TrEMBL record:
Pfam families: Inhibitor_I9. This is Inhibitor I9 domain-containing protein. Belongs to the protease inhibitor I9 family. It comes from Apiospora aurea. Residues 3-71 form the Inhibitor I9 domain. PANTHER family: PROTEASE B INHIBITOR 2.
Length: 71
């Protein structure tokens, strides 16, 4: 399953972030890392199910986790 980075809205409370994580798990996702610098987390999701996270009220963005290179 692909891994995605879920970024919550900047004003999301700890309870709202927990609700977003629970929503991800309820939709078949598996939480990976929880981030401190941003309000977010990584989640493994079946590719056809990720749209449910994008529409969650406390989620700002969902991106495919990829390798980043600098030049």
């Amino acid at each position: 399953m692909p891994t995605y980075i879920v970024t919550c809205k900047p004003d999301a409370s700890a309870d709202q972030i927990a609700a977003a994580k629970k929503h991800a798990e309820d939709q078949g996702g598996k939480i990976g890392h929880e981030y401190n610098l941003i309000k977010g987390f990584s989640v493994e999701f079946p590719k056809d199910s990720i749209s449910t996270m994008e529409s969650h009220e406390h989620v700002k963005a969902v991106e495919l986790d990829q390798e980043v290179k600098t030049q």
